[in-house]
Design goal:
Blueprint lengths: L11 H12 L5 E2 L2 E2 L8 E2 L5 E2 L26 H18 L3 H7 L4 E3 L5 E2 L4 H9 L10 E13 L4 E14 L2 E18 L2 E14 L9
Parallel strand pairs: 5-10
Antiparallel strand pairs: 1-2, 3-4, 5-6, 7-8, 8-9, 9-10
């Protein structure tokens, strides 16, 4: 007899129902035992009892504040959201070649890189970028800044914040294959003024340098 054929003592309809109930865990019975769904955020172990440990990413788990991989935009404070937006905005402006926009972003801040500190007032940061970064026919430096590992510490009462993050700069041109040309870290300070968060200082520390001949002026 074929293993998949129903036993002689059981009707085909009953056997079909048995198979259907056995193969679908959402049915009220599985392998002859009652099955009740676990409350959301809980697991069942192999014995069928509920586990007290919530599933990763389920309700009841609080992501570590400020970490880019688990940034909770629903439960974050206004300051945390603003800090993440400012960090992302810098990368976007540089990669689109909007150096005037970067200057406005740092209008009340100090930019500290490999050279002398640059004050943002009077367009200092914009001039620094125009003098040091190469832009091409499309008006951009043909770069892609990727900012990760963001850790932000915000004091909402004092209206101040600090953040640290990693940055990797990629570049590609028709005769220059896509590659990472620099990697380092940002150390940022922020302040809230008239209800709006803004940069107060950025420190750039580049630890790994590739071929920047197409990115920076000699």
């Amino acid at each position: 007899m074929c293993a998949s054929a129903p036993p002689p003592a059981i009707s085909r309809a009953a056997f079909t129902r048995f198979l259907r109930l056995s193969r679908h865990p959402e049915r009220p019975f599985r392998h002859g035992r009652p099955r009740t769904p676990a409350p959301r955020g809980q697991n069942r172990n192999r014995s069928g009892t509920q586990s007290a440990h919530p599933r990763r990413g389920s309700a009841g788990t609080a992501p570590a504040p400020g970490l880019s991989g688990t940034f909770d935009r629903v439960n974050s404070t206004a300051g945390e959201t603003a800090v993440h937006h400012l960090i992302a905005r810098y990368a976007e402006l540089v990669d689109t070649g909007d150096f005037a926009g970067v200057g406005a972003l740092f209008a009340h801040a100090r930019f500290i890189g490999s050279g002398e500190p640059v004050e943002g007032r009077d367009g200092g940061v914009e001039r620094m970028l125009r003098d040091s970064v190469i832009r091409y026919e499309d008006g951009t430096p043909r770069t892609h800044h990727v900012t990760t590992n963001i850790v932000a510490e915000v004091d909402e009462e004092a209206g101040t914040a600090h953040a640290r993050s990693y940055v990797t700069v990629y570049q590609a041109l028709p005769d220059f294959p896509l590659q990472a040309v620099a990697a380092g870290r940002y150390g940022d300070r922020f302040e809230r003024h008239d209800g709006q968060w803004r940069f107060a200082e950025r420190r750039v520390r580049i630890h790994l340098v590739g071929d920047v001949s197409r990115h920076l002026r000699a």
